[in-house]
Amino acid sequence: MDNYVVEVDDVTVRFNLSNEKVDNLKEYAIKLMKHELMFQEFLALKNVSLKVKKGEAWGLIGTNGSGKSTLLKVIAGILKPYRGSVRVAGSIAPLIELGAGFDGNLTARENIYMNGTLLGHSKKFMEEHFDEVVEFAEIKKFLDSPIKNFSSGMKARLGFAVATIVNPDVLIVDEVLEVGDYRFRKKCNERMQEMRESGTTLLYVSHNINSVKKLCDHAIWLDKGVERMAGDAVTVCEAYQQEQDELEKIRLKKKREKERKKRGNNYDYLIVGAGLFGAVFAHEARQAGKRCLVIDRRTHIGGNIYTENVDGIQVHKYGAHIFHTSDKEVWEYVNQFAEFNHYINSPMAVYKDELYNLPFNMNTFSKMWGIRTPEEAQKIIADQIADLHITEPQNLEEQALSLVGTDVYEKLIRGYTEKQWGRPCKELPSFIIKRLPLRFTYDNNYFNDRYQGIPMGGYTKIVEALLADVDVKLGVDFAAYQKENPGTFKKVVYTGMIDEYFDYRLGHLQYRTVRFETERLPESNYQGNAVVNYTEAAVPYTRIIEHKHFEPEREKAEPKDFTVISREYSQEWKPGMEPYYPVNDEKNGQLYEEYRKLADQEKNVIFGGRLGHYKYYDMDKVIREALECVREELKRKD
Predict the structure, then answer these.
(1) From 87, 174, 189, 243, which residue has the greatest number of CB atoms within 10 Å?
(2) Known active-site residue 256
């Protein structure tokens, strides 16, 4: 016991469940004497062991009825084990039922003293800490009101405040904070973190897996009273979440099959493309009671944001995708479907044997010119621009030079841009680069958006969640499906190439595509950063992605002695290839406008996404476009 604060050794807890209904004590006594009471044995815990060291935080996870609360009650001494032993060193603050010791007819003031006494505190001690309790619980205006008039959240605040006046050796928290509002839960989590830092050991039960991963460094997964898994919190939580996700998929599949039998194979919407636009539209339409079928010619969902788990590393199969937005509604929307980490995009650029920070900031300028102050950098750039005498840029090269000067353009823009577009910068229109941000601060954060991050566990999880209750068919061509299933859908949501929809009758729009060379390397860290651009024209690829660096928290929890990298080669699109982004020059813009006029005549087809609109979208803009589109559609339909 010297090394452990809590030691649970082979504990079994047994309950006797009566098979008969007994209405009163007299009837119970008579049946007991006549040996007429029948009981069924129920084992709430079966040979469970747990050893917790001082200062550790353990999360207890599992479905309802798995034995989590029972285990906490055994540790707290509320229940006695049928077999096995429990030993606890030091004091315990069991927050299993906040407010359970309150008397509803007494005021909050009276209950604070009474509850403190039940926890072993003297009246003097409670008087000294009374104001602290009231302030934390935020109930000053209600001190002399009967507690029976309090909401569950107010009782939770008061119970937590009283129970955590002092730091116990062991703090036990059982789902009690879920009744509080977001601000109070955040406040309680901060208090628990402070207690942990002072040496308190935490045992925490919650159905919120993300909160377990944030608060705890270890976890135990219980299933019907049996230990399924114990160890690192992230590993255990993700294994549990994966199983629950699979069970939920089975449940939803059975639900859809039952609905299909009832209503047949007719759909309100046939959604072509399982990328972000199609998935968001399908989810929202389904939530509104519409039947949707999503088809995709690829054999996976997610479109270009698809991520694949390669031995614990989430590989961005179609290039790096970093979510960033200043749209709060969109940020809150995606956070419904995945937990995001705090990844900040800070790419590097390699030019010959030189290494620079991106975006263009004081770190870049300091390395390029050997200067330190913003004034020095601004003068160099201004002088270079002035020497060029460019008044009306006629192409991309002149536009870029007039914005950033010669050195930045030659080393960090020219070669990369020409590889990306497959043609000299002098042949590209100036409007492709409307602005090139220059930051005269030492700030490597590529984006200015307020919200940034990458979904922990990959983007595929988001699309899976969006399409969880939607019928999906993969490896299906739209034209063939439409021909083979006439009359089975009322309307089409089309996210493919708009010129392909019209069978290229006006000619082909131009696209760029990307070829990826992905390989697994027998080293733990290849380039030290997720994204490294190669800006020299002589290097055939535009950048190298090292995928593990997108989730540093996972790598920290589960270090790997290997890595996965992808080299990206930009090239011209040809039929049969995957189109990535449009070539937005004047010629293609005019051709798209002609296709858009044709699209406007298709009354039962909605065109959306980057291919349907022939426009490059960031992920947040795709989601915003899809949300507005489906809301307008459902409003019009209603």
Answers:
(1) 174
(2) no
